Amino acid sequence: MERKDVDLPADAPKAFLRQQHIDYIEQWNKRKGEFEYVMSEYLRMSGLYWCVTALELLDSRDKLDTAAVLKFIDECFDDASGGFSASQGHDPHLLYTLSAVQILCIYDAMQQKYVDGACKFIAALQREDGSFQGDEWGEVDTRFSFCALAALSLLGKLDAINVDAAVQHVLRCLNFDGGFGVGTESESHAGQIYCCVGVLTIANRLYSIDQTKLGLWLSQRQLERSGGFNGRPEKLPDVCYSWWVLSSIQMLQCQDWIDADRLKAFILACQDDESGGFADRPGDMVDPFHTLFGIAALSMLGESDIDRVNCVYCMPHRVIQRLGLA
Ligand code: GRG
Predict the structure, then answer these.
(1) What is the mean pLDDT of each successive set of 10 residues along the chain, which is 326 residues long?
(2) Which end of the chain has fewer CB atoms at under 10 Å, N or C?
(3) 183: CA distance to ligand 1 center in Å?
(4) Dihedral angle at the C-alpha atoms of 278, 281, 99, 28, nearest 10 degrees?
């Protein structure tokens, strides 16, 4: 049976458009009054992390005002809980606490109050069964387990939580097909797999799963016509899965099980050669989310114009080395 897929347009970009992407991200952060920018306020801190990381990987930190970024992060820090919010006046959440910690690590601008706050905030969100809720309202998701372990390991403070219980929860979310979902008995999904494999990697517990079975499921995400990855069976390819799938494959060390050249051709075809930036699929609208994950995946594929990305943290590898984590 033919799988859902797309064809790459004959005139789609075939080379990496480095300067256009730098310009696109620089412009995006100047569009403060525009509809799209305003509508993404609820995830601004992560949006900033996507932009900062993409620019770092392109060696272009100067395109963002570092002082303004650090001021924004400080304004999103909640003294009472110790967490960070998406934007000023919003509630703190694990998703944005990880993004803030990542940016602070990239800029080497950590402060003791942030370390103490983040430890307190994250520890308070671990539940008895080892899982994590994202905020005080109680939603539980394997994404939040990753946010907790990634942020604390970047801070050198994994001892603030019960790591073994966190691992046990992730292992309870393992499915018969070798993958992981949002929680127990949830469909395997490449984004959640990245999070769970990330948790197991940070906790040094990858040996607890069948890595061959999972590597096979991940390699089956590559589609025949386009060469791109989907996030689960019977879905269309999307450039962000180039990151979620390939980084997981790297952590499992089975890179040879996919066709890297065809994946690269798909990712390059998702670039917009007029505006810069990447879209989910060729010809669609670009955005900072797909732009970071397109660039980061190309870095893993060895694109020479991009700095090396770390496959666990999605940050420049040199930063992870500076922190003594690689
Ligand atoms: C530091 C890189 C990094 C991440 C932090 C938030 C997080 C941890 C990870 C998110 C992982 C995830 C769930 C990614 C998937 C995002 C996405 C494109 C979801 C869309 O899912 P569906 O099911 O789309 O709507 P499909 O592709 O299945 O049609």
Answers:
(1) 90 98 95 87 96 98 97 98 98 98 98 98 98 98 99 98 98 98 98 98 98 98 98 98 98 97 98 98 98 98 97 98 98
(2) N
(3) 14
(4) 40
Question: Which residue puts its alpha carbon closest to atom 15 of ligand 1?
Answer: 191
Rounded distance, CA 301 to CA 154, Å? 25
Name the burial class of residue 88, with classes exposed (0-12), middle (13-18) and buried (19+) by CB atoms within 10 angstroms of its CB.
exposed
**Which CATH fold topology does 18-322 show?**
Glycosyltransferase (1.50.10)
Q: How far is the CA of 113 from the centre of ligand 1 (A)?
A: 30
Q: What is the rounded CA–CA span in Å between residue 202 and residue 206? A: 9
HSE-CB for 263 with a 13 A CA cutoff: 29
SS3 content of the chain, % helix, strand, coil (to 5): 50, 5, 40
How far apart are the CA of 240 and the centre of ligand 1, in A?
8
pLDDT of residue 2: 73
Which of 52, 195, 235 has most ligand 1 atoms within 8 Å of CB, for mutation?
A: 195
Q: Is the distance from the beta carbon of residue 235 to the nearest atom of ligand 1 less than 6 Å?
A: yes
Domain boundaries, the chain: 18-322
Distance CA 11, CA 38 (A): 33
Contact by Cβ (8 Å): 199, 146? yes
Residue nearest to atom 19 of ligand 1 (CA): 191
